[in-house]
Design brief:
Layout (H helix, E strand, L loop, with lengths): L2 E9 L4 H17 L3 E17 L2 E12 L2 H13 L3 E9 L8 H10 L26
Antiparallel strand pairs: 1-3, 1-4, 2-3
Length: about 140
């Protein structure tokens, strides 16, 4: 069966339990129709790039699915009907990513202490600093 990633955005005013219930209902639709949910990730409440239906933030959830195409059409139909979901996207992938997704790895890195400087050190290789007053005019 083909492999898919289904990501949906739920309204910002929902509680985490309600978002988990949305993910469970999507999982139930998939499993009842002969598909399999390989992995479910909740990315949390994140800011949107622009306002969608008066929401500035949304709860992001991703499902990695192994399902036939008619099942994906049914999942998208049910997702469209749900008024708590403000956006969704389903894409076909060649293989599911092993381990956590890029979004989860990004969250782990930020929890460890901010940006990784990549070993630049104190940058003494640039030479002495020149202030504006030291310039020859």
């Amino acid at each position: 069966m083909p492999l898919y990633e289904h990501v949906f955005l739920a309204r910002q005013d929902l509680a985490q339990a309600q978002v988990d219930a949305l993910a469970e209902s999507a999982t139930k639709i998939i499993e009842d129709n002969g598909g399999k949910v390989v992995k479910t990730e909740t990315w949390g409440l994140r800011s949107l790039a622009y306002r969608i239906q008066k929401n500035r933030k949304a709860h992001y959830v991703m499902l990695e699915v192994d399902a036939p195409p008619p099942l994906v059409a049914e999942l998208e139909r049910q997702t469209q009907i749900n008024e708590d979901v403000i956006r969704y996207l389903t894409i076909k992938v060649d293989a599911h990513e092993a381990g956590p997704s890029a979004m989860m790895r990004r969250n782990e890195r930020s929890e460890r202490g901010g940006r990784d400087r990549g070993g630049r050190g104190d940058r003494d290789d640039r030479g002495p600093r020149r202030d504006r007053d030291d310039r020859d005019s």
